[in-house]
Amino acid sequence: MCGFYLMKKYTFAAWAFIFTLVLLFVISVFGLTISVLKGM
Predict the structure, then answer these.
(1) Keyword Transmembrane: yes or no (predicted)?
(2) How many structural domains is the chain composed of?
(3) What long-range pairs does 22-28 form, CB within 8 A, spacing at least 24?
(4) How far apart are alpha carbons 4 and 22 in whole angstroms?
């Protein structure tokens, strides 16, 4: 039971980490697109 709970907890942490990385990537791409459009 305890091992399963730990695994669930770590899986949630991994998903949160991946979600944060994807969010940062999307925000950076969005910012780059806006700067390129402003440059044009």
Answers:
(1) yes
(2) 1
(3) none
(4) 27
Q: Which residues constitute the domain of residue 38?
A: 1-40
Rounded to whole angstroms, how far apart are CA atoms 31 and 12?
28
Nearest to 2 by CA among 10, 28, 12: 10
- What sign does the CA torsion over 14, 20, 21, 22 have? positive
Q: What is the pLDDT of residues 1-40, one digit of tens each?
A: 577 777 888 898 999 999 999 999 999 999 999 999 999 8
Supply the pLDDT for residue 1: 57
